[in-house]
From TrEMBL:
It is found in: Endomembrane system. It comes from Dendrothele bispora (strain CBS 962.96). This is Ras-domain-containing protein. Belongs to the small GTPase superfamily. Rab family. The chain holds residues 1 to 183 of 222 of the full protein. The lineage of its organism: Eukaryota, Fungi, Dikarya, Basidiomycota, Agaricomycotina. GO terms for cellular component: endomembrane system.
Length: 183
């Protein structure tokens, strides 16, 4: 590993409805913190993070792009998707609408991104499910959808940090696996 800081650089994109927690996931990943009242006009656009995959003895540099407010215009361009190896498709487990809209986001990803892109469905804000009345999307329903569409799946909380690194790591492992298989 001498002189090598990382073995691979992967571009990741984060899509999904406004307010599901995309910027918060990125801030949690890269900065280990959570902002209860982020300024919506100052969406975090970019974050970089080294992820190590010990069983492969590999370090991967993630370059993550957030839609940073453009989601309301559905104006995400081809250049945003170009070269992406991974995609987080995020919904809010307390918003059924945001879950249903992941179908539209997925269609957009499939239209513009590389067909081999690894996509992970991320049900964010699970910390709010302590109050069981708030959950609007069951884990089982999302799991079935993910399986049907060939997506990885995880439930996360940018607030507590639960499963945030795991979401990215699972996607990285899947991408490395595709590289090994020559896909
Ligand atoms: P974005 O528009 O998808 O980038 O969403 P933001 O990251 O701006 O988050 C929208 C709102 O949800 C903010 O008030 C966040 O503090 C809040 N939020 C984001 N993630 C979580 C989470 O995991 N749990 C809770 N309780 N709130 C969250």
């Amino acid at each position: 590993m001498s002189g090598v800081n990382w073995h691979y650089v992967f571009k990741f994109i984060i899509t999904g409805d406004a307010a599901v927690g995309k910027s918060s996931l990125l801030v949690r990943l890269t900065d280990q913190r959570f902002l209860a009242n982020p300024d919506p006009t100052l969406g975090v656009e970019f974050g970089s993070k080294l992820i190590s995959i010990p069983e492969e003895n590999k370090v991967v540099k993630l370059q993550c792009w957030d839609t940073a407010g453009t989601e309301s215009f559905r104006s995400i361009t081809r250049s945003y998707y170009r070269g992406a190896a991974g995609c987080l498709l995020v919904y809010d487990v307390t918003s059924r609408k945001s879950f249903l809209n992941t179908r539209t986001w997925l269609a957009d990803v499939r239209e513009h991104a590389d067909p081999h892109l690894t996509c992970i469905l991320v049900g964010n804000k699970v910390d709010l499910c302590d109050e069981s009345t708030k959950r609007q999307v069951s884990t089982e329903e999302a799991e079935i959808f993910a399986k049907e569409e060939g997506l990885l799946f995880v439930e996360s909380s940018a607030k507590s940090g639960q499963n945030v690194e795991k979401a990215f790591e699972d996607a990285v492992r899947d991408i490395l696996d595709k590289i090994h298989r020559g896909v």
